[in-house]
Design brief:
The longest helix has 15 residues, at about 75-90. This protein has 6 helices and 3 strands; from the N terminus they run ααβααββαα. The protein has about 110 residues and is of the alpha+beta class. It has helices at about 10-15, 20-30, 35-40, 45-60, 75-90, 95-100, and strands at about 35, 60-65, 70-75. The N and C termini lie far apart (about 50 Å).
Length: about 110
């Protein structure tokens, strides 16, 4: 059995950096979608949509649930909300004061 590591910030950025995957995330931000709905919206064949959704899933950005013959995808918002802070933390590892606010500004 192979152990999979959690996706890194770079993995997530790579997943979002491709136009089709970014469009998929934008559509999933509106709510859960079936692959067939996403095919129609993007004008792409099922194989391409599924391929890109699988890459987003591997990056931890979407979750999938099979219902009958159809696969439904949902956006995993937590990693997206944390992504900006994680990028800054990776870029400026010794500057916690730049990436973490300890008290209110107002």
């Amino acid at each position: 059995m192979t152990t999979r590591t959690a996706p890194t910030v770079l993995d997530q950025l790579k997943a979002l950096a491709q136009d089709t995957r970014y469009d998929l995330v934008r559509h999933l931000a509106q709510g859960e979608r079936c692959v067939c709905d996403l095919e129609s919206v993007l004008g792409l064949p099922q194989s391409k949509v599924s391929y890109h959704l699988n890459l987003l899933k591997e990056a931890g950005l979407v979750t999938a649930e099979q219902r009958g013959k159809n696969m439904y995808y949902t956006l995993n918002t937590t990693p997206l909300f944390l992504l900006g802070g994680q990028v800054l933390t990776d870029l400026f590892p010794g500057h916690i004061d730049l990436t973490h606010q300890t008290k209110s500004v107002c």
